[in-house]
Write a structure and sequence with these properties.
Blueprint (H helix, E strand, L loop, with lengths): L2 E6 L3 H11 L5 E7 L5 H8 L3 E5 L7 H11 L5 E6 L5 H9 L3 E4 L4 H13 L7 H9 L3 H10 L3 H11 L4 H8 L3 H15 L4 H10 L7
Parallel strand pairs: 1-2, 1-3, 3-4, 4-5
């Protein structure tokens, strides 16, 4: 089955460009478009896309609120890939905190766009650029540090979280730690559960905000 994608951007040319890039791939199909976040929920419910490529800045309902709305009202939710012009945009960081699964620059090369869609669909590694990591570190707080301490991660779970924060996939983590992929999955699940994180992105944000991991 192909990966199905919904494009959400108030710029028709941006949507057209993404459609052209994605539809050259035999395993990806664009199933719909929207010009604003306000139209996302009914389209997601009707089309059931695997991925929503969501512009972060839109006039009526921006990508942050649209992400929150989708995750709150649609089950199971699609993966949400934030698309923006500026990598150090605080809107991007807030969208990731709201639950978006990855990040894509509008100026990205076609191969990078395709890779991003496939990566968030697989769900076992991150699109979390250095500029966003720095923003996460700036949002550090005592409460984030306390939450990390309460999580009481084991030594192996801590190692897995650090590698997750570097964007490594489960297979790459397994190779680094010389353990099996299923063992990595178990550790990742344990980390998410202890941190109360919905997914890898949320866990990595917690790691940076708490100072458990610092930007390179």
């Amino acid at each position: 089955m192909p990966i199905t994608v919904l494009l959400v951007d108030d710029e028709p040319l941006a949507r057209a460009g993404l459609r052209v890039v994605l539809e050259t791939q035999p395993d990806i199909r664009v199933v719909g478009e929207a010009a604003d976040g306000a139209a996302v929920i009914p389209l997601v419910r009707r089309l059931r896309p695997d991925v929503v490529a969501m512009d972060v800045r839109m006039p009526l309902l921006d990508g942050i609120e649209a992400t929150r709305a989708v995750l709150r009202t649609v089950a199971p939710p699609p993966k949400i890939l934030v698309v923006t012009t500026f990598e150090n945009d605080e809107y991007v960081y807030q969208a990731l905190r709201a639950g978006a699964d990855g990040f894509l620059l509008k100026r990205a090369r076609p191969a990078e766009i395709v890779h991003a869609v496939r990566l968030v669909t697989e769900g076992d590694s991150l699109l979390f650029p250095a500029a966003v990591r720095a923003l996460a570190a700036e949002y550090g707080s005592r409460s984030a540090r306390d939450a990390m301490e309460r999580a009481a991660l084991t030594e192996r779970e801590a190692a897995v979280l650090r590698l997750m924060a570097r964007g490594l996939s489960n297979a790459e983590i397994a190779e680094q730690l010389l353990i099996g992929s299923e063992t990595v999955k178990s550790h990742v699940s344990a980390v998410l559960g202890k941190l109360g994180a919905r997914d890898r992105t949320q866990a990595v944000i917690a790691a940076y905000e708490s100072g458990f991991v610092t930007p390179a």
